[in-house]
Amino acid sequence: MPFAVAGAAIGAGVSAAGASSAADAAQQQAAAQLAWQKSVYNTAQNNINPYIQFGQTNIPNYQSALSGYGTAMGNYNNTVGQYANAVPSMTTPYGMSQYQQSPLYTPMVNNLAELQATPGYQMQLQQGLQAINNSSAAKGGLLSGANEMALNNYAQNQAATGFQNAWQRAQTAYGNAFNQNLQGQQQTANVLGQQANLYNTAANQSNQNVANYANASGVGLNAANALAGIGQSSSISNAYQNLGNANAAAAGAPYAAIGQGIGNIGSSLGSAYGSGNLSSLGNYFSGIGGSNMGNVVSPITANSANQAGLANNSYGYTFVS
Fold first, then answer.
1. For residues 255 and 293, is the Cβ–Cβ distance under 8 A?
2. What angle do CA 27, 46, 54 make, to 5 degrees?
3. Which of 51, 65, 105, 118 gets the most CB atoms within 10 Å of its CB?
4. pLDDT reported for residue 17
5. H or E element in which residue 77 lies
6. Is the pTM of this model over 0.70?
């Protein structure tokens, strides 16, 4: 009996040492795996951070480009509206009512009274008649029929020439006024058209800026998502879980082995003293290995599980060791 008990005790010690050594090795391997996962994440963070910062830097540029695009489109729409409003005046035929409002307006001469009222006509007529009378008087024929005929012929020629000149002046004035109005219409159309083209170009450029800055901001967003994906990967969570399991195993292995050894000793005692009080004692020692040592290991295992759960809450930029 003593040898059986001693053998069981020695076996318990050897088993505890072996279990502890194996658990330590598993613990070290799990810790190394977690450290490697951390280094992968930290390396990725260092590599991706410039892209994240690039995207964050361009967010204000993107917002500014949106505002610029809105302003450019507003200017373009206003100019198009002005052009549309000017179309009726630019396409209305030039008529007498418009011509009469022009500073170049020169009325047509419709009768002798209107001709005689034109500037300079009376002065030219009087000077011409005076010259004929002076010539006839010098010859002594002021009251002659020839002088009278000369005066009538001059007056008639003056009227005919005056009508022709007045008509030509009116035609020239109307043509000048028409061309002036046409040039004004063309100038208005050109100015508004050029403004519309400029604002359209500005709107297109602003739209391109919006697209460029949106892409730049998207680079940062994609980089952040990529980094988050690395942090949320199952490999990191598994590494924490494995380390927690290894910690639990390392902490509980010696106790489990000792408990088993004590149970074996109890079994040996129970076998040696299979009756009476010693039998009860054997059963008690056997129970230590089966339940009481489990109470010692359970808190350790629970704490290690909490450490493993830390992986689910450490997906930020800094790991919690």
1. yes
2. 150
3. 65
4. 67
5. helix 2-91
6. no
